[in-house]
Amino acid sequence: MFKVIQRSVGPASLSLLTFKVYASPKKDSPHETSVKVNELSLYSVPEGQSKYVEEPRTQLEESISHLRHYCKPYTSWCQEMYSQTKPKMQSLVQWGLDSYEYLQNAPPGFFPRLGVIGFAGVVGLLLARGSKIKKLVYPPGFMGLAASLYYPQQAIVFVQVSGEKLYDWGLRGYIVVEDLWKENFQKPGNVKNSPGNK
């Protein structure tokens, strides 16, 4: 056996103690009293070999397993849709909170202006009876006209940006129509054979 000598540094009340351990063979003890490692109860080896036996699945477990496999594509689709719509919903909720806060501390004269703009939209809806195109054009047009009377600077910026976008869309449409015209009507193979060309 080995004799263990321990020296600790620092008071015993401290939780972190540094110490050195020295081991030396014990010369006065006989070797017959020593215990082997495999004789300790901590290291005892079980008598027989254990074997894992899987319990048979019950009808309830089988039903739940089939249900989980059946629902897995739908749950993954729902998780994907949730992860896609969560940022949009958070921004929508934030916009709603900001709008609510703005309406709570609205500048003076805001609500009468809002009432006039809304009334212009209702007048546009009444004047647009009968035609679906008029119902799409008149209410926003009248509301835009009323809003431009109260907010002229924002209306000018809106008209400039909208004009640039409309010009860009028109230019793109012109290019697409021109390409289609060249592909379909100006190909040399599309010239029909007349009786004089035979």
Could you give a quick summary of the protein structure above?
The chain has helices spanning 59-104, 110-127, 132-150, 152-185, and strands at 2-9, 18-25. By secondary structure, it is mainly alpha-helical.
Descriptive account of the structure:
It holds the Pfam family ApoO. Belongs to the apolipoprotein O/MICOS complex subunit Mic27 family. Keywords: Membrane, Mitochondrion, Mitochondrion inner membrane, Transmembrane, Transmembrane helix. It comes from Ceratotherium simum simum. The protein is mainly alpha-helical. Helices cover 59% and strands 8% of the residues. The protein has four helices and two strands; from the N terminus they run ββαααα. A two-stranded antiparallel sheet has the order 1-2. β1 and β2 form a beta hairpin.
Helix-strand layout with pairing:
Layout: E1 2-9, E2 18-25, H1 59-104, H2 110-127, H3 132-150, H4 152-185
Antiparallel strand pairs: 1-2
Helix pairs in contact: 2-3, 3-4
The helix-strand sequence is EEHHHH
Unreliably modeled segments: 1-10
Tally of individual helices: 4
Q: Which structural class matches the secondary elements?
A: mainly alpha
Distance between the termini: 118 Å
Sheet with the most strands: spatial strand order: 1-2
Name the average pLDDT: 79
Main sheet specs: 2 strands, antiparallel
Give the strand tally.
2
- The proportion of residues forming helix, as a percent range, comes to 55-70%
What best-fitting shape do the alpha-carbon axes yield? elongated
Radius of gyration: 43 Å
Beta-strand residue fraction: 5-15%
